[in-house]
C-alpha cells in the first residue's frame, strides 16, 4: 500500500490512500514562500528518505521533525531532485539533525554552492552549505527497505535535475521538471528549454500513463494527463 498525504503549513487537505503489494508512504509538506513540496518516503519498517528539504523557518523544521518522531521513522538518506534554493532551505538543518550527507547529481554541486549568490538577488542572505556530498546519477539504484528506486536524469530546469522513480508503485517524484499542466522554468542558471523538453519526452512521458507525478510545486498529476492536457507538451 502506498499512501499519499498532503501536509501543508498553508492549507489542510484530505489524505488519499492507494493499496499495492508492498507498503510505502509518501508524505508531502508544503514549505517556504515558494510553496515547495518536501517529501518523506517511508516503509513499514520505519526507514525513510527525506527528499528536497525546503523547510525554511524553525516552525517548518519542527513540523517535519515532529512528524518523523511521531511515526518512529529513521531517516536513512537525504535526496535532492535538484539544488535550487527553494528546495534546500532546510538542507543544512536536515544534514545536521540526522547526521547524513546529501545525495545529489554531480552537476548540481555548483548550483548548490552558488545559492548564497542567488539569495542576494532575491534580497536575503543564505549561508554556504557545510556538509558532505554523495553523488548519484541515472545509473544509481536506491533501495528503501525492499523497494528499488531508480533515477531518471531530467536536466533543463537545472543542469543536474533527477527524478526518483518507484516503478513498483507507479510513482515518480519529478522535482521541477514536470508539473500539473506546466513545466519547469528555464531562465535560471544553466537552464535550457530545449533540453528540458527532451528530458520530459524521453525520461518522463515514456513511463506508463498511469504513473503518478509528484512535483516540486503544486498538486500531483499523472503522465497520461500531462500527455493530453499539458499545453507545453503539445508543441512539436
Automatic annotation (TrEMBL):
<dbReference type="InterPro" id="IPR051453">
    <property type="entry name" value="MBL_Glyoxalase_II"/>
</dbReference>
<dbReference type="GO" id="GO:0016787">
    <property type="term" value="F:hydrolase activity"/>
</dbReference>
<dbReference type="Pfam" id="PF00753">
    <property type="entry name" value="Lactamase_B"/>
</dbReference>
<dbReference type="InterPro" id="IPR036866">
    <property type="entry name" value="RibonucZ/Hydroxyglut_hydro"/>
</dbReference>
<dbReference type="InterPro" id="IPR001279">
    <property type="entry name" value="Metallo-B-lactamas"/>
</dbReference>
<feature type="domain" description="Metallo-beta-lactamase">
    <location>
        <begin position="35"/>
        <end position="217"/>
    </location>
</feature>
<keyword id="KW-0378">Hydrolase</keyword>
<keyword id="KW-0479">Metal-binding</keyword>
<protein>
    <submittedName>
        <fullName>Glyoxylase, beta-lactamase superfamily II</fullName>
    </submittedName>
</protein>
<dbReference type="GO" id="GO:0046872">
    <property type="term" value="F:metal ion binding"/>
</dbReference>
<keyword id="KW-0862">Zinc</keyword>
Amino acid at each position: 500500500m502506498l499512501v499519499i498525504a498532503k501536509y501543508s503549513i498553508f492549507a489542510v487537505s484530505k489524505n488519499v490512500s492507494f493499496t499495492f503489494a508492498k507498503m510505502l508512504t509518501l508524505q508531502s509538506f508544503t514549505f517556504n514562500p515558494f510553496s515547495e513540496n518536501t517529501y518523506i518516503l517511508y516503509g513499514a519498517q520505519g526507514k525513510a528518505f527525506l527528499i528536497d528539504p525546503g523547510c525554511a523557518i524553525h516552525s517548518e523544521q519542527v513540523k517535519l521533525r515532529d512528524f518523523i518522531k511521531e511515526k518512529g521513522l529513521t531517516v536513512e538518506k537525504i535526496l535532492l531532485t535538484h539544488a535550487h534554493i527553494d528546495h534546500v532551505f532546510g538542507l543544512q538543518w536536515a544534514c545536521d539533525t540526522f547526521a547524513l550527507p546529501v545525495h545529489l547529481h554531480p552537476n548540481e554541486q555548483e548550483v548548490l554552492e552558488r545559492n548564497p549568490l542567488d539569495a542576494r538577488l532575491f534580497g536575503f542572505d543564505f549561508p554556504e552549505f557545510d556538509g558532505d556530498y554523495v553523488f548519484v546519477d541515472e545509473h544509481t539504484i536506491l533501495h528503501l527497505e525492499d523497494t528499488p528506486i531508480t533515477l531518471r536524469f531530467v536536466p533543463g530546469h537545472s543542469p543536474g535535475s533527477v527524478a526518483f522513480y518507484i516503478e513498483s508503485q507507479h510513482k515518480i517524484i519529478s522535482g521541477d521538471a514536470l508539473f500539473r499542466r506546466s513545466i519547469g522554468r528555464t531562465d535560471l542558471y544553466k537552464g535550457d528549454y530545449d533540453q528540458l523538453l527532451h528530458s520530459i519526452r524521453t525520461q518522463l512521458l515514456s513511463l506508463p500513463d498511469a504513473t503518478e507525478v509528484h512535483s516540486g510545486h503544486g498538486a500531483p498529476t499523472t503522465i497520461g494527463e500531462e500527455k493530453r492536457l499539458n499545453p507545453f507538451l503539445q508543441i512539436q
